Amino acid sequence: xxxxxxxxxxxxxxxxxxxxxxxxxxxxxxxxxxxxxxxxxxxxxxxxxxxxxxxxxxxxxxxxxxxxxxxxxxxxxxxxxxxxxxxxxxxxxxxxxxxxxxxxxxxxxxxxxxxxxxxxxxxxxxxxxxxxxxxxxxxxxxxxxxxxxxxxxxxxxxxxxxxxxxxxxxxxxxxxxxxxxxxxxxxxxxxxxxxxxxxxxxxxxxxxxxxxxxxxxxxxxxxxxxxxxxxxxxxxxxxxxxxxxxxxxxxxxxxxxxxxxxxxxxxxxxxxxxxxxxxxxxxxxxxxxxxxxxxxxxxxxxxxxxxxxxxxxxxxxxxxxxxxxxxxxxxxxxxxxxxxxxxxxxxxxxxxxxxxxxxxxxxxxxxxxxxxx
Length: 373
What we know:
With 373 residues, this protein is an all-alpha fold.
């Protein structure tokens, strides 16, 4: 080839430009699958009107399944790894959790849910420690123990996501934990209201039991609605109270892993600087969003406040949908094989403890409880 020919030949695109292009295409895949998820979340209950199961299925199920399907297709076609730069799981999860803080009205918790605060602290502490202990006895990886403990004791998927950031868990471990949460939450929607009716529980006690035990907010809402309007109101307050404690648990997990779990004899002594470096900064955003939302709701009418928070919540759902799609796209089957059935045993045992303890606390704290207006 001549010098002149070489001069006019197009130069190969820099690797960074090609990587950026593939990353944009990967994120486009995430957006498309996320849009399909939102469509299914909205339309499936309409297509199967009258089906409680169809109404109760949450977006993580659709998102993860679509992500897994996309994973399989992209792997077969040989482009999954090239597109992986667009699967921004960590960013999407953290942004979604910051926006979750806007739904935590601190004033409601403090003024209208004193018993819920007591229940939340006792229930979360006891169930978390039991799950952590049993996971250790069965030899689970410490990071998976943390995710399962947070998920079953606080609020399911959101708590698992927050814990994953604190302990730097693998995405496969997060997907496994989220799947267990959903698998156990769905039957609880129908079982707990039926048991509450069979036991003759008051609406307040039934609501506190449902809110303290079921691990996802949407499932709590569905079960509470089956139990009655007052039960739904109490269940929502109890669940919101537990949601508000996510930040506390994340801080504790960050400190425990930094100063205890991952500390070795030859490693330098952990410092506050090391703790801050490891600390998931999005928790501060979560707390700030909660404080701002609490203040904002005192400055506008109830209708305006509800509408604004509704927009923020819708945006949060979008971010978490995209996050779960990304988890599905990045998922590795080998990680599930490594985990085996031990996590299922741990989660199931902790769920039983949660059910019994939540019932006892609900009977003790909510027998004569009414919602403040």
